[in-house]
């Protein structure tokens, strides 16, 4: 199985990518993870990526593609992968397509999770996070203790800047402008499968599996 998982922030991509990858016995290739690993290992591409990040700049597409190419050539990715967090733009998708063609690893499908904007805002703005141990709560689905402190370490819970409602809406605007055009791009290539992202983790996973024909 070689697939890309698309969806706006808060749609549950990371969770679903992990579950799909585990079920298929292939790696979840998350851009944040492979960037971190490349930096830790001190590879040439990792050092180049770090130099941009240290300056607060986006890592250029050619560097990201190089890091992804290295990851997909590792032994555990020979039978497939679930790409999570890349591509984010049509130019990145074009570069990825050329890479996969050169590696002889064509995509099987591109899965797009559809979740209404107001649901995403409610999901993210309702999160409360412990700055000590990192545990997350949610005011609706996993309420924090009444005293507003983490039950693990006792630190006062906070709303991360990225989870504030106004910030979430800004992030969704960026997604609509930069990433949503990928749906049309992959639809034209017969790869897109749109999946309802509402429901429990298990329900969404089953829909994704059905969309893959599994």
CATH topology term: Rossmann fold
Query: What count of structural domains?
Result: 1
Give the SSE order as H and E letters.
Answer: EHEHHHEHEHEEHHEH
Q: What number is the mean pLDDT? A: 92
Strand content: 5-15%
CATH architecture: 3-Layer(aba) Sandwich
Q: So how many helices?
A: 9
Largest sheet: 5 strands, parallel
Strand order of the largest sheet: 2-3-1-4-7
C-alpha termini separation: 10 Å
What do you see in this structure?
The protein has 214 residues and is α/β, with parallel strands linked by helices. It has 9 helices and 7 strands. The strands form 2 sheets. A 5-stranded parallel β-sheet has the order 2-3-1-4-7, sandwiched between helices. Helix 1 packs across helix 9 and helix 2 packs across helix 3. The longest helix has 14 residues, at 90-103. It starts with a strand and ends with a helix.
């Amino acid at each position: 199985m070689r697939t890309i998982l698309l969806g706006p922030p808060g749609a549950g991509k990371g969770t679903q990518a992990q579950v799909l990858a585990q079920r298929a016995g292939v790696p979840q290739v998350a851009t944040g993870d492979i960037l971190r690993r490349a930096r830790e290992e001190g590879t040439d591409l990792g050092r180049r990526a770090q130099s941009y990040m240290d300056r607060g700049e986006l890592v250029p597409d050619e560097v990201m593609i190089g890091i992804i190419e290295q990851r997909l050539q590792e032994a555990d990715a020979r039978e497939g992968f679930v790409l999570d967090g890349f591509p984010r733009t049509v130019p990145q998708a074009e570069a990825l397509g050329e890479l996969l063609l050169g590696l002889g690893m064509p995509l099987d499908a591109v899965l797009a999770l559809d979740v209404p904007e107001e649901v995403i805002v409610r999901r993210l703005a309702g999160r409360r996070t412990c700055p000590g141990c990192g545990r997350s709560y949610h005011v609706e689905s996993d309420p924090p203790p009444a005293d507003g402190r983490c039950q693990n370490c006792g630190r006062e819970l906070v709303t991360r800047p990225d989870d504030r409602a106004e910030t979430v809406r800004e992030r969704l605007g960026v997604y609509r402008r930069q990433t949503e055009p990928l749906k049309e791009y992959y639809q034209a290539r017969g790869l897109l499968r749109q999946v309802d992202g509402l429901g429990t983790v298990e329900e969404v996973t089953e829909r994704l599996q059905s969309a893959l024909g599994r």
